[in-house]
Design goal:
The chain is built from one helix and 24 strands. The strands form seven sheets. Strands 16, 17, 19, 20, 21 and 24 form a six-stranded antiparallel β-sheet that branches. Strands 4-7-11-10 form a four-stranded antiparallel β-sheet, with no helix packed on it. Strands 6-5-23-22 form a four-stranded antiparallel β-sheet, with no helix packed on it. The two termini are 37 Å apart. Helix content is 2%, strand content 37%.
């Protein structure tokens, strides 16, 4: 998991001219880097330093808001069988948050909360929110946590750039964990093709230790994989929220597997030894005969999600036809081992 993350660009420490600002911000130099550190706001574009220390155990991924497409189809003979004979009536595309930049921090440091720092138009960093992020997912067995944030009104800096800073024991210090810098350069999120076996009929995984596979993505520094089910009482609106493109689904799901595979790896069977550079954040046994959803997201060395499994269709029944949308994952149903 650590191969695709690199420390923030090192910048030569420069003397800070503090005309009229003495005492406003404490400036220190990290002995392990050339950063000029500032505990508040770095107003000089030539000083991109942030107080803290980069950690490979704190990964930031950013991506643009991507639309979902809803199709309406007329059900032609044979009625009840969804196939190529059915005709498309209309297609509508909708976005949940147009223009918004989404971020996700996947962390196993000592941090209990996170600040999000955004690079402003003059090149300096300022806090995106006036509050800290709390985990939206806690994987207690491995002590990994997931944090998410949204920026509905990005600054004028190009490319949009973000850094997460961990809060430890209620505060931030020179040793607070810093994520990689996430830079958004990809405005669209292409489809990542899942190639593993799916349903129990006619061909399916032979047992619950399913093999997940996908097409390689050019420029990928690794792949996040998630196997999950929807929680009890999930509504249609909940399913659509979970279907939104993101490295991991964090709402209305129960995780069975979360892991990271390094570049060059495009398949993994649950329970098998991990290839070098891979990590498993959580792994629970899958049950034969039950349906699961498999999501794969490719990320690059800039902390961007560059491809995502839009996956299989979810269908909504109507009077004379039906509607469908891609659910953000491949549907997989393990079957019993054959004799």
């Amino acid at each position: 998991m650590n191969d695709h993350r690199s420390p923030l660009r090192r910048i030569a420490a420069l003397a800070v001219v503090a005309l009229g600002m003495a005492g406003c911000a404490k400036q220190v130099t990290n002995p392990d880097s050339n950063y000029v550190l500032d505990s508040t706001y770095v107003s000089n574009p030539s000083h991109g330093g942030i107080e803290g220390r980069y950690s490979t155990q704190a990964q930031l991924i950013v991506h643009a808001d991507a639309p979902l497409t809803l199709d309406s189809l007329k059900d032609k003979l044979p009625v009840g069988v969804r196939g190529p004979e059915d005709s498309l009536v209309w297609t509508r595309t909708f976005e949940f948050a147009p223009g918004t930049i989404h971020g996700m921090i996947i962390d196993s440091t000592a941090a209990s909360a996170y600040q999000v720092l955004r690079r402003e138009g003059n090149g300096g960093y300022a806090r995106l929110k006036d509050y800290v992020l709390n985990p939206v997912v806690r994987l207690l067995e491995t002590r990994w946590e997931v944090y998410t944030f949204d920026d509905a009104h990005p600054s004028g800096f190009r490319p949009p750039t973000y850094v997460g800073r961990g809060v430890v024991a209620g505060g931030v210090t020179r040793s607070s964990p810093l994520t990689n810098a996430g830079e958004l350069r990809v405005e669209t999120v292409p489809d990542l093709q899942y190639t593993g076996l799916r349903f129990s009929t006619p061909a399916a995984p032979l047992d619950s230790n399913i093999t997940m596979s996908w097409n390689a993505v050019a420029g990928a520094a690794g792949y996040w994989i998630q196997v999950y089910q929807h929680g009890g009482g999930v509504t249609e609106a909940n399913r659509q929220v979970a279907a939104q493109p993101a490295p991991l689904a964090t709402r209305y799901v129960r995780n069975s597997f979360v892991g990271f595979m390094p570049p060059g790896v495009t398949a993994y069977q649950i329970g098998e030894p991990l290839p070098p550079g891979a990590k498993v954040l959580t792994m629970r046994p899958l049950i034969n005969g039950r349906e699961y959803f498999v999501r794969v997201a490719a990320v690059n060395g800039r902390g961007e999600m560059i491809a995502f499994t839009y996956g299989d269709y979810w269908f909504l029944a109507g009077v004379t036809g039906y509607k469908r949308y891609r659910m953000g994952a491949a549907r997989v149903q393990p079957g019993p081992q054959e004799d």
